[in-house]
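Q: Entry one of two.
A:
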Amino acid sequence: MIKKIEKILFDNDFKMVLVYGDTNSTFAGAFAAVKAGLKVGHIEAGLRSFDRRMPEEINRILTDNVSNYLFAPTSTAINNLRKENIFGDIFDTGDLSVEIVKKAKQIASKSEILKDLQLESKSYVLFTMHRAENTEHGDSFISIIRAFEMLSDTKIVFPMHPRTKKILNDKNLFKRIENCQNVMIIKPVGYIDFIKLILNSKKIITDSGGLQKESYLLSIPCITIRKNTEWIETVSEGWNVLVNTNTEKIIEYVKNWMPFNSNPKQIFGEGNTSSIIQEIIMNLIA
């Protein structure tokens, strides 16, 4: 991947390469740009879960360390970069998701996903799980399924990725979760339909970093089945709790927990991140 990106960069007259997030392609793009002698800007820089078992954490660290310009979404991200003595220039930009989620929310008003699934608003908990540290360990799945079985009076909507289904089948666990009458297993849905599902859920259970942020922006309580998070502000503001895959904690927080702050603060900026980054880039190029 790096060699292919590098060739594209060499064959064109680019002044800067922007990379976003923490995927393998994020670091590949940054590394290829450095090899091509180009400046690199990292959007969503400075996030840290401090868990190097996560591939995303390694990608974040490596990308930040080769970037010239670091567009940080939160004050915590800025502090992380300063503590690490990152050589690039750090900019406080807020997070692009504020704009993305706001626009998606408007479009999602036309989504028919609730009607298609015959779901009533606020009648269900939305569940997702995809991280390797959860899906590749049978104990984590068993803890989750046990929680589902004990939450028999709570409807749980589970958009299940084909890879997750395969792992469950390989571990002889798919039938057990399929037998949970309160669990609605559906195919993965598009982003707009998914935003509609978030908006109309009572709570979220997830190991996704992006969904923690989206649920906060949409004021939906989030129960995170991880030991740590890169979005620590969502926890400190009371809208997110870390429970790992502990069966008892999952049940307790689904049944009895609600956020202690009624109005989420604007911890991800005011919704003008794209304009801020654009202005910075134009000044840098000029």
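Q: Entry two of two.
A:
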Amino acid sequence: MGLALETIVGYVASGTGTTTYDALTPNANQSYTVRSYPDGSSAWLEDAWGATSAAQWLWSIKSPRLHDDVKGILMAVNAYTNTGSTVIFNPNTNLPGFLTQKLFSTDVLSVTALAATATNKFVGVMNVRYENLGGVNARLFHWNEIGPQIVNLVGIEVQPAASGTVGHFGTGVALNSVDQRLKANTDYAWLGYTCSIPVTALVMNGVDVGNLNVGGPGAYDSSSTGDFFVAQSLKYNTAHIPVVNSNNQGGTFISIADVTASTAPNVTLYFGELRNRLGNPSTP
């Protein structure tokens, strides 16, 4: 069973501020074409969130194979939050709760956004989950498989920085680039994370997650990120919790993309040390 999660990040570098929707540009090596998967399997759009540099935006995910190809799934994104002298560019969750959309193999999604004001910037992110993706077998597990296995919690610090270009991923940093306390040849479940300042998206990439970007929003509220993958597993009743072996930490990278340039948060990744090494998952 080739389980896979993929976090896809796109951006509008400068909105036109007209009544015309601007197309989002996906990051390098990413695409809005649904990956090919075999008949009898499924793929789902499970999460979508966005962040804006100023003013409000609307953004849309559509296709003739979804509800309609006019505006499709239309979502509103709030403006940034201004708290006195500090501006917080906090990502907005736009598909909350249990809202999901089935996607079709090789379908080309149109992802666009409408700016309220010209030159404003926008970053939109989506999580797509595949039940069976050829060539990928991410180590993703249910909470009821992970919870009983946890013997210790550990927080590992990393210091990724966003690109100097808005919406682009910055250079990834290895899981052990700052903090090298993971025990040798031990499996760890990635439960969630916290960021010292908000960023639009935080992802992990490495062999244990199928060499795809897997992550979530870097929101300021740790109650929504600290157990992010546990909550996803419980919410969707599917295997959502990534498991990483510590021997792979040097080749496992954390990256961020943001609606502001060169953001550099301190990030703490919450892991559960597992009693046993787990094999590959057997259920979606």
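A: Comment on entry two: The chain has two domains: 4-130, 140-274. The CA atoms of residues 35 and 106 lie 5 Å apart.
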